[in-house]
């Protein structure tokens, strides 16, 4: 049991850490799939060490492997699409699009499980779509084919991430004895193998060009993939949904800021308005999802 203040600090720290995910992937200066592979390699290695040091965390780590293969397949698609999107449109905008997963998750629930949604979801979706149009729709004809492809990859990231969350949640409910850390270790190792196979098919090199790339890939796998998400999952049960949704907006907001400071991202006033509307829409979408989860 941790205090709400400490939980808020943990969640904020976790959101800041994962906001650097796309930044480190870009700084690694390797092929998108290669950076995804090393993200899972270093993340899986870190989790394996944690499980070796803490026996209580590895309860169930050998169980329900077929389910973990399915979960890993969705997560592999998520990582592959997102790293492609980072390559084409940059860390900030790709991260913003990836956060549309909250709408994809709800839409999947509506179609698959006949879930009903309320005004929060409708408001959030409307704001997010308006923001998306201001960001990209107004100038769609002037965008390069590569930039458009990056937008498609970003939205596919959100869809794949929605299936990943849905499958992970469903199997954890069915197999509650498996520790989340053990499941995440399974999934990370399987994702590493899948992305490694894709990297070979694409003909990409596994060589890490220099020390800066190595440090970026280690940071991506250790601090973003593992510690960032452990802080978030550790803190969420002790905070109200409204505060969780607000603090999680730090991730896409900070990613846009880092993109501006490091890579020179520049947005027009209309695009800034679009990004703001999208973030507000994502917040409403999260509140709607949290309300359904409580129900």
Please give a structural write-up.
The chain is an all-alpha fold and 295 residues long. It has one domain. Helix content is 80%, strand content 0%. It has helices at 4-19, 21-27, 32-53, 65-89, 91-98, 101-112, 119-137, 145-174, 180-202, 211-235, 241-248, 250-263, 269-294. Helix 1 packs parallel to helix 11, helix 7 runs antiparallel to helix 13 and helix 11 (241-248) runs antiparallel to helix 13. The mean pLDDT is 87.
Give Rg in angstroms.
18 Å
Low-confidence stretches: none
Structural class designation: mainly alpha
Mean pLDDT: 87
As a percent range, the share of helical residues equals over 70%
What shape does the CA trace take? globular
Can I get a quick summary?
The protein has helices at residues 4-19, 21-27, 32-53, 65-89, 91-98, 101-112, 119-137, 145-174, 180-202, 211-235, 241-248, 250-263, 269-294. The chain has 295 residues and is mainly alpha-helical.
Give the SSE map.
Blueprint lengths: L3 H16 L1 H7 L4 H22 L11 H25 L1 H8 L2 H12 L6 H19 L7 H30 L5 H23 L8 H25 L5 H8 L1 H14 L5 H26 L1
Helix pairs in contact: 1-10, 1-11, 1-12, 2-5, 2-10, 3-4, 3-9, 3-10, 4-5, 4-8, 4-9, 5-8, 5-12, 6-8, 6-13, 7-13, 11-13
């Amino acid at each position: 049991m941790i205090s709400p203040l400490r939980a808020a600090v943990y969640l904020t720290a976790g959101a800041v850490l994962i906001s650097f995910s796309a930044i480190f992937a870009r700084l690694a200066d390797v092929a998108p799939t290669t950076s995804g592979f090393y993200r899972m390699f270093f993340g899986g290695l870190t989790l394996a060490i944690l499980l070796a040091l803490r026996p209580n965390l590895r309860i169930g780590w050998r169980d329900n492997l077929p389910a973990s293969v399915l979960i890993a397949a969705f997560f592999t698609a998520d990582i592959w699409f997102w790293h492609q999107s980072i390559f084409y449109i940059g860390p900030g905008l790709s991260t913003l699009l990836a956060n549309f997963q909250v709408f994809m998750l709800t839409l999947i629930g509506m179609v698959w499980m006949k879930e009903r949604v309320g005004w929060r979801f409708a408001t959030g979706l409307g704001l997010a779509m308006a923001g998306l149009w201001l960001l990209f729709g107004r100038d769609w004809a002037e965008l390069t084919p590569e930039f458009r492809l990056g937008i498609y990859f970003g939205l596919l990231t959100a869809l794949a991430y929605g299936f990943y969350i849905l499958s992970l949640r469903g199997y954890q409910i069915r197999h509650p004895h498996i520790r989340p850390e053990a499941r995440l270790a399974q999934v990370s190792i399987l994702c590493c193998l899948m992305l490694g196979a894709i990297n070979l098919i694409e003909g990409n090199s596994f060589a890490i060009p220099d020390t800066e790339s190595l440090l970026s890939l280690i940071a991506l796998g250790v601090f973003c993939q593992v510690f960032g998400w452990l802080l978030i999952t550790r803190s969420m049960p002790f905070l109200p949904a409204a505060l969780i949704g607000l603090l999680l907006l730090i991730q896409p907001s900070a990613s846009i800021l880092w993109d501006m400071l490091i890579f020179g991202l520049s947005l027009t006033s209309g695009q800034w308005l679009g990004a703001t509307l999208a973030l507000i829409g994502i917040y409403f979408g999260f509140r709607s999802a949290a309300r359904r989860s409580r129900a």
